[in-house]
Amino acid sequence: MDMMAMVTGLLAAQAGKVQMQVAATIMKSNADAEKSAVQTLLGAAQQNVSSLANLGAGIGGSLDISA
Q1: Radius of gyration of the chain from its Cα atoms, rounded to whole angstroms
Q2: pTM to 2 decimals?
Q3: Apex CA 29: angle with CA 24 and CA 30, to 5°?
Q4: What is the end-to-end Cα distance of the chain in Å, rounded?
Q5: Closest among 41, 60, 42 to 52, alpha carbons compared
Q6: Per-residue pLDDT tens digits of the chain, which is 67 residues long
């Protein structure tokens, strides 16, 4: 193997390493964003459940949501 082929191979390996690092950073960022979205949704659901706890018995029992 000549020297130029070895240098080219090393440069390609380094470029691949950088691409993997960028991809890992993006995936972590996406995972953090998803976690934040889920926590927001769970918080909103908890608030809705808490506000419904004050309703009397039978309220909303025959709600028609087919429309």
Answers
A1: 27
A2: 0.52
A3: 95
A4: 73
A5: 60
A6: 689 999 999 999 999 999 999 999 999 999 989 998 888 888 887 777 766 666 666 666 676 777 6
What the block records as the tokens of 48 is: 């809705």
Token output for 7: 């240098």
One-letter amino acid at 19 equals Q
Distance, in Å, from the CA atom of 9 to the CA atom of 3, rounded to the nearest integer, reads 10
Residue 7: closest CA among 27, 25, 15:
15
Q: Is 32 helix (H, G, I), strand (E, B) or coil?
A: helix
> Could you tell me the sign of the dihedral formed by the alpha carbons of 33, 34, 37, 43, in that order?
negative
Two tokens at 61? 């029992």
Residue type, 66: S
d(CA 26, CA 32): 10
